[in-house]
Amino acid sequence: MATLSPSKKKSNKRSSNSRYSQNMDSSSSSLFNCTRKYLLFAPFVAFVLVVLYVKRETPESMNFVVPTAEICSVEVVNEFPHDPKAFTQGLLYGGNDTLFESTGLYGKSSVRQVVLQTGKVEVLQEMNSRYFGEGLTLFGDRLFQVTWLKNTGFIYDRHNLSKYEKFNHQMPDGWGLATDGQVLFGSDGSSILYQLDPSTLKVIGKATVKYKGHMVHNLNELEYVNGEVWANVWQTDCIARISPKDGIVVGWIVLPELRQRLLRHESEFQEIGSIDVLNGIAWDEENGRLFVTGKQWPKLYEIKLHPIKGPFVGSIERLCLRRPFISQSHRFTHPKEINA
Ligand SMILES: *[C@@H]1O[C@H](CO)[C@@H](O)[C@H](O)[C@H]1NC(C)=O
Ligand SMILES: *[C@@H]1O[C@H](CO)[C@@H](O)[C@H](O)[C@H]1NC(C)=O
């Protein structure tokens, strides 16, 4: 069967080809005349096609494109107010111009529902002062949150942020959370990207995150974007784009200008605490909008990515890689506050 069918196809093709060429022969002279006439319009037609193609690539549709380039810089396309007292540890887009956010610091930790355009906190769930809120993700109708230096996490109802239950997970610490709708991805400040079963919270997979053979330490807030896990690298202005299959970093987003811009205008925000590091990525998949903010940043930015072409000034190693943060030895000294 297998050897018969290709030759059968081939002969069919040949016969149809010869039929086609017969037709061509009979009408070729008139066809040629027509073509010659239309050839005069070819440059015009080409121009129209180019215009149509360029028009298709308007800013709206460009938003949907995640460049494949290894290194991207950002352009701010919108800025929105952000609660400058929010020590952002988890951020996600919940649809309908709504964000969900988890904030840290003892006595100030919370889960909140925030209006994108105004930054107004619509629903607030304050946490017990024993807990330091960390990563947050939305799985179905439930928000999962982890806490710093503890294996304790919480599940909330997305509609009113009422607490469903407390859970324990198996990561050594809780820093970031994200989901692809199947599993939860977790980070604990090390270079490990964990996969957790959302129903049992058991660790079902682990990958060491690496860039050109270097381990990428201090993985913090996470977001799932187009098949990749994006991670803020703590104490840097870099977002690592990680392949969840093997932990390989497939690209970087470098955005030092956002924090620098805020620091330049810090006097305008003087009533607030100090502007801390970039932390918080939210992806609106439906509309292709990407948002970022930071700890105690008075702004949340909608950004677009632009590939950096040619040699990159300032190596990724220097900008984005840090020595490992040793959670155990810093236990109870609250280094995140000290380093604020
Ligand atoms: C979207 O948000 C607006 C304003 O907060 C609210 O009135 C509306 O009911 C929401 N729509 C959905 C589908 O949740
Ligand atoms: C929150 O919403 C859920 C349904 O989504 C409901 O069962 C629960 O009673 C609500 N809790 C509060 C405090 O309103």
Automatic annotation (TrEMBL):
GO terms for molecular function: glutaminyl-peptide cyclotransferase activity. Pfam families: Glu_cyclase_2. Residues 20-29 have a biased composition (Polar residues). The chain crosses the membrane at residues 38-54. InterPro entries: QCT, WD40/YVTN_repeat-like_dom_sf. Gene3D superfamilies: YVTN repeat-like/Quinoprotein amine dehydrogenase. Keywords: Membrane, Transmembrane, Transmembrane helix. This is Glutaminyl-peptide cyclotransferase.
